[in-house]
Amino acid sequence: MACWHTLSALLVTCGLAARVASSANQKDLGLQVAENPPMQVIAKPPPRPEPVSDTFETRDGFAVIDTLDAFREAIKHDGQKIRLKPGLYRADTVDPPMTVPVLRAQPDQDGDLPQNEQQHVFAVNGSNNYFDLRGAVIETPVSLQSKLSGKAHVADTWHVNGANNTFEGGYFRNVTDLPYPDYRVTENEFEVCNDGNTFLNCTFVIKGSVPYGYSDFYGKGGPNFGRLNKHSFLGVDHANNTKLLGCQVFMQSFGHCVHFHTVDGVLIKDCLLSGALRPTNDIFRETAGRAKEYDFNIMYRGTRPIPRNEMIPLTEEGVRAYENVRNITVIDTTVERLRGCFQLLCVGDVTLENVTVLEAGDFSYDLSSGDLGKVTMRNCRSDLAYNPVFNCTRGAIPRNASYELTVLNPAEGVQPTPRTSLGTICGDQCTFILHDGTTRPLPAEFNRLDCGGKQGLTNCTVTNYTTAMLILNERVRDCVIKSVGPVEDHGEGNTVTEVEPEESTRP
After folding, report:
1. Is 219 left (phi over 0), alpha (psi -120 to 50) or beta?
2. Average pLDDT, the chain
3. How many CB atoms sit inside 10 A of residue 113's CB?
4. What are the residue ranges spanned by the domains of the chain?
5. Which of 29, 111, 146, 179 is the most exposed place for a label (fewest CB within 10 A)?
6. Closest by alpha carbon to 423, among 386, 371, 368, 378?
7. How many angstroms separate the CA atoms of 70 and 50, rounded?
8. Mean pLDDT of 420-449
9. pLDDT tens profile 97-111
10. Nearest by Cα to 57 from 85, 80, 89, 81
11. How far apart are CA 114 and CA 131, in angstroms?
């Protein structure tokens, strides 16, 4: 069993120091105030781009271009096959501003259709293109993003206004070439505003947000206790059938990784979405910056001291749905160290298959479509690390949904926090199946699942093949509970049966 000390002690005694040092052995003056010691951040470093070679593949029918200006021109036209020569390209100019109609938007009360006011570094206005970017690294420095508008929902680094484009193999990264916090960044690195666009085998390194290093302690929408400038990876807005296939995203900014607004159809497959965490104890080492200015208090949603011995996300959600979102599918994908790794509160189907969540910054899964769609989690996994696994508390109560989850041990050296648990489930006529994928015992005080929450659990079947304790609150009614672990039943009309562990999980 792992050792259970405070997080500060854990950095030395349980091996976490090596994991932290790997991402914080050098100070990045684009991400933190110069006076402070190097920030301790737990994050997976992005891979290095492939070495540039003069020999590269050009497929039949593809035209080769070798400058960023030529590429900037190509993305304005239709029906092309473009091969960008491998190499390093840094943007130093921006495309002209545009105003475009919002796709499939409804007119307002005056009969006017909403318009999308855009400023950008790159405007992808062409359709039906295939851009082969293998071996190409395209950099967008924060100094250039700072030249765009600071008005909300206007500036994005890339606006994809065309339809049915494919971007293959590109390595896109932000460069923090100005000292923190003396710059401004775009709202999203990519905003997709039309249908059928695909990102295939691309890598994205997302940096730059103000503030950075404090989660949402000083605001995330309003009110803000100081300047706020978020930077997300991908927004999909009034656009259908976007695909993210075989991509890797490394989030080092406060903003969502992927978020949707009025969308019908997204496929995320074979991807890695990787964020960053920070021990709260590390904040107290600072001698300058936002936390010091507020005497190490959280200001957002009420003044209170920053807690010790917890782990906070330095990003927002991993995969997040806002208004009018349906038909979201995520397959064979790992999401790690993001705030809410999945918060998909939709009005249509949601399918997660063979998905793994590791070291969630706030919770692993919050999925619901109420009675407007089918939620299916199949062969999914989550470790029991710093924060709850399930957070079925915010959306409409799930109905006829299916949740299948295998519980995993955290990595060696991961220390539970006061927030560690399997979380909370609710639902009506839903099925929950918990498999045991652990290889060493979990601490009993964290190995528990709260059933019912504020919305209740009714006419559901819960099959628990783990050793976790199930706590059925007074809102759990007429459920069938089968469990290896102990059950506390405070509800009514429930049938509780002890079952044997699954054969594959026995020693």
Report:
1. left
2. 94
3. 10
4. 1-50+60-320, 339-507
5. 111
6. 386
7. 22
8. 97
9. 999 999 998 888 888
10. 85
11. 30
